[in-house]
């Protein structure tokens, strides 16, 4: 499925100064029995703050005995954040961590100079089908931290701050936003929040960060008279304070941060400010220098292109 052309709502075209700068509709990609909606990078926008990659996984229902099977693969120059709405995933990495992530919890893996990990569904315990839906994002590391040692942290649902307003609830995943601070330590100014709106509710989005975007996971939201449905990302204009309204209820991710300290190159699972770092990572993966994931002997070969 190709990128959908000219998805800008008519209401944005009719206004000279609007709070929404760009609308992104993801590209649907099938990965075996699993589908993802690739939001970033997009032709309209390569990144939002340090967020250089944004995938909406599922929603998918696996048949009995089937599940997510992402074999060990490498990363450099980024942090990955995995956040689920349905289902569960077992994370394993070359540092020796094994962690099951459930809805509302956070896996934060910093690749630095290099890490290997796998993502699989837990072993099936029954004959019932299993559902999976979530978001995975990549955050480019600042240049001074691209070659840092890799690391991994996990935060349970109960450890993440939540803000409650009339008809709205916000879970602060990363950064400072909505008057609260997440425990998750990041290496650049950014924020990530899981926002839920009840029917006929609204919430204000402050202009605390230069670059911001709203991705609708379920339902629909309205910004300044324009309606955005599930699977759409609305990139906000810098400095615009907005109010998000939902007539029937919605869940959306609010993300953003300050502009990166220069452009980034993305190739396969590698992110770097210098193409030479990517070429080195290619060679290291071919030669088996990244390390191995304990208990998971498979691996994804380096692509030919």
Helical proportion?
under 10%
**Count the helices. How many?**
2
Distance between the termini: 20 Å
Number of domains: 1
- CATH H-level superfamily title: Jelly Rolls
Chart the SSEs and their pairings:
Elements: H1 10-13, E1 20-24, E2 27-31, E3 34-40, E4 51-62, E5 69-75, E6 78-86, E7 89-93, E8 98-101, E9 106-110, E10 115-120, E11 130-140, E12 151-155, E13 162-165, E14 168-174, E15 176-177, E16 180-181, E17 190-197, E18 201-205, E19 211-223, E20 226-229, E21 233-236, E22 242-246, E23 250-257, E24 265-267, E25 270-272, H2 275-286
Antiparallel strand pairs: 1-21, 2-3, 3-4, 4-11, 5-10, 6-9, 6-11, 7-8, 7-10, 9-12, 13-14, 14-17, 15-16, 17-23, 18-22, 19-20, 19-21, 19-22, 19-23, 24-25
Protein name: Pirin family protein
Family: Belongs to the pirin family.
Domain Pirin N-terminal: 34-139
Give a written overview of the molecule.
By secondary structure, this protein is mainly beta. The protein is built from 2 helices and 25 strands. Residues 1-6 have low confidence and may be disordered.
Give a brief description.
With 305 residues, this protein is mainly beta. It has helices at 10-13, 275-286, and strands at residues 20-24, 27-31, 34-40, 51-62, 69-75, 78-86, 89-93, 98-101, 106-110, 115-120, 130-140, 151-155, 162-165, 168-174, 176-177, 180-181, 190-197, 201-205, 211-223, 226-229, 233-236, 242-246, 250-257, 265-267, 270-272. Residues 1-6 have low confidence and may be disordered.
Features:
mainly beta, 7-stranded antiparallel beta sheet, 305 residues, 10-stranded antiparallel beta sheet, 5% helix, disordered N terminus, Jelly Rolls
